[in-house]
Amino acid sequence: MRYYGNYFCLSIKSFDRKATDYDKFNYSGKFCEGRMIEDLFEQCDFMSLYVQQAEEAMFMVNNEFLNKFKKLICLINTARGKVVRIAIW
């Protein structure tokens, strides 16, 4: 998650909200509580992406991924490249 993710979590806490994160490479910062991705599907109100462009990240967020959330979320995509691919209808 590193720099931007850490400061995003810090800004969320200033609104008296809980910030959790999932980091595949275990770079969770000091401002967030690291979680398993399945926990995020249960608890998130919004999700902010900080993902580098890489083959393994290509289209990792798609309709199937978003349908796993238990409630409607707000997606903030700050990722570079082709990370999000959704059908809007």
Mind sketching the topology for me?
Elements: H1 2-13, E1 20-21, E2 33-34, H2 37-43, E3 46-49, E4 61-62, H3 63-66, E5 74-77, E6 84-85
Parallel strand pairs: 1-2, 3-5, 4-6
Folded structure, characterized:
The chain contains 3 helices and 6 strands. 26% of the residues lie in helices and 18% in strands. The mean pLDDT is 77. This is D-isomer specific 2-hydroxyacid dehydrogenase NAD-binding domain-containing protein. One of its GO terms (molecular function) is NAD binding. It comes from Labilibaculum euxinus. Residues 17-84 form the D-isomer specific 2-hydroxyacid dehydrogenase NAD-binding domain.
Task: Write a concise keyword list for the protein shown above.
single chain; alpha/beta; Rossmann fold
| Second CATH tier, the architecture | 3-Layer(aba) Sandwich
Number of helices: 3
Structural class: alpha/beta
CATH superfamily annotation: NAD(P)-binding Rossmann-like Domain
Q: Give the strand content.
A: 15-25%
**Average pLDDT reading:** 77
For the record, the CATH class is Alpha Beta
Provide the number of structural domains.
Answer: 1
Major sheet strand order? 1-2
**Spatial extent as radius of gyration:** 13 Å
